[in-house]
Amino acid sequence: MPSAAVTYDFLNSVRSTAKGGATARVHAALREAIVQLDLKPGEFLDKQAIAGRMGVSRFPVGEAMNRLAAEGLVDIIPQSGSRVALIKISDTRENMFLRRALEVETVRTVAFDVPAELVDQLRSNLLYQRAAIEAQDLKGFHGFDLAFHAALMDRLGFERVRNAAETARLGLDRVRRLLNTRRRLEHTLEEHQAIVAAIETGDGDAAGRAMHAHLDAVLAELESFARENPELFADLNAMGDRPS
Questions:
Q1: Mean of pLDDT values over 23-46
Q2: CA distance 53 to 11
């Protein structure tokens, strides 16, 4: 049954800024709430309450949930309702595999011919990451993290590679936020610094190794988190057969 305690107040900010028709607005609001973990994995969704909070009928809420189900973010359970999907370790591994394949090769290629302005951009980004950590601005840090990786993709200049990497990253957004601790942010900054240091020297192989280590560290920490919080994950039986 839907939880009566959930008021969906966090949908207000998205309601006021989302564009498009009713279904698009509800979809955007619910997707952001799920990715931001305002709606937790396994939490049942109350269509009537969501409709009331968003100022729409139940129909666009149902359509939005169907879209979210197609994205793997919502489970629609016959005779029971809809709930936020549990996180799948198998999906996380696949998305991280794609990111490793694309981003390791990206930094390896970029490092062999890196302009001074890109190095300056990356160094500036690292300073902003540090400032976000000191201010305990988790959302700000996440934005600078995205900008760091995007700058490298922009330099590569391959649109299909960029789109594939973005799709894989979107699949990891929710799980990445589970690791937004001060310790993880500090490690992420250190790993980014190692990538930039290798790029600055023009050492593509070292840059590739640093990127690989960075993405592997994130995945390893997530799997450790999953073991400690099994109620948030759907397929912990897959934990024992991780590809090397």
A1: 91
A2: 7
Q: Is position 3 within any domain?
A: no
Q: What angle do CA 233, 39, 96 make, to 5 degrees?
A: 45
For the range 120-126, what are the long-range contacts, defined as Cβ-Cβ under 8 Å and sequence gap of 24 or more?
121/151, 122/148, 122/151, 122/152, 122/196, 122/199, 123/196, 125/151, 125/192, 126/189, 126/192, 126/193, 126/196
Alpha helices, DSSP H, located in 112-203: 116-134, 138-156, 159-170, 173-177, 182-200
- Choose the final residue of a domain: 63, 84, 105: 84
Q: Which domain holds residue 106?
A: 89-241
CATH number at residue 35: 1.10.10.10
Q: Who wins on pLDDT, 2 or 238?
A: 238
Domain final position from 61, 84, 107: 84
